[in-house]
Amino acid sequence: MDLFEIVSSFIPDEQKADIKAKIDGELGNLTKSKETEVKKTLSKKFGVNLFEEDTEKAFSESLFVRKEVLETTRSEVETTKSQLETLTKQLDQYKEEKSFSDLSVKLIKNGFNADRLEAVKPLLKESKENETDDEKVNRIKTQVPELFVDPKVIKNAYGKDDNDSDAGLTEAEKYFKSKAKQNNR
User: What is the pLDDT of residues 62-120, one digit of tens each?
Assistant: First the structure.
């Protein structure tokens, strides 16, 4: 039931058309102002231009994100996260390998048998949290002293000692050198 139908019984017939136009006009104006007010409030609240007729333009400068774009972004984020995890694991592995290489060099400098480095790898992984490389070397020395070569036995492989002119030569080279000396006599 319309507002005019309710009030029309109290209005004389000659004024009904005029009053109906006034009521419809005022009602239309009130509706438009309330609609504008509601659109402004919702536009501010949700960041969408509700006064625009074109949907793409209405949402162009808003916080609204299309479902397709959101799902694409989510899949990209998941892919990036998995790549990050993979690279983090690789980084940890490279750091561990670098640490083992540095420690191996220190062990060999302290007379450790280089052929037995893999045998000591589990002992190195058991290290304490803030243990330095020197402490690790000393710990390995005390745990497996049989894998260390006596420093007196180690010879300079690149230079010649006064006592031994064959230092740094392989067995085959020593053999050929001794044969050459025998032939020169």
Answer: 556 677 878 899 999 999 999 999 999 999 999 988 988 888 888 888 888 778 888 88
Of the candidates 149, 169, 171, the one whose C-alpha atom is nearest the C-alpha of residue 157 is 169
Among 149, 147, 158, 140, which residue's Cα sits nearest to residue 103? Answer: 140
d(CA 84, CA 5): 71
Give the rounded distance of the alpha carbon of 37 from its chain centre: 47
Q: DSSP per residue over 119-149, as a string?
A: HHHHHHHT--TT--HHHHHHHHHHH-GGGBP
pTM: 0.45
- Cβ(68)–Cβ(55) under 8 Å? no
With a pLDDT cut of 90, the percent of the chain lying above it is 12
Tokens coding 41: 């409030």
Tokens of 28: 């239309």
